[in-house]
Write a structure and sequence with these properties.
Number of strands: 2
Strand order of the largest sheet: 1-2
Largest sheet: 2 strands, parallel
Shape: globular
Helix content: 40-55%
Radius of gyration: 15 Å
Order of helices and strands: HHHEHEHH
Distance between the termini: 28 Å
């Protein structure tokens, strides 16, 4: 992962890379979802960030691709360097009243 951090790889690209290498055979739906998220803009679709119980069918009906924010921490948690990077970003960017 350290090479990916130096290359300034986006989080979505990192997740797609991990999905492709680790779980493509085991979980093809997971690979297809992250590929659709990564390529949404390239395919002329809007990427909509959602959190919580939002029906994905509504987002797809609007010709958009949903990005579930709740999925990102579980996908990057395997990599301690990337997790530490996000913790540092949150500590420097987020208001201290948001989290203790």
């Amino acid at each position: 992962m350290t090479d990916d951090l130096h290359e300034k790889m986006s989080v979505i690209d990192y997740i797609c890379k991990q999905s492709a290498s680790d779980r493509r055979e085991q979980r093809p739906d997971d690979f297809a979802y992250w590929t659709a998220v990564r390529d949404a803009h390239k395919n002329g679709k809007k990427l909509i960030y959602i959190n919580g119980p939002v029906p994905a069918e509504i987002i797809y009906a609007l010709d958009c691709v949903p990005l579930y924010l709740d999925l990102i921490p579980s996908r990057i948690s395997e990599d301690s360097a990337l997790t530490a990077r996000f913790i540092n970003l949150a500590e420097t960017s987020a208001n201290l009243t948001l989290c203790s």
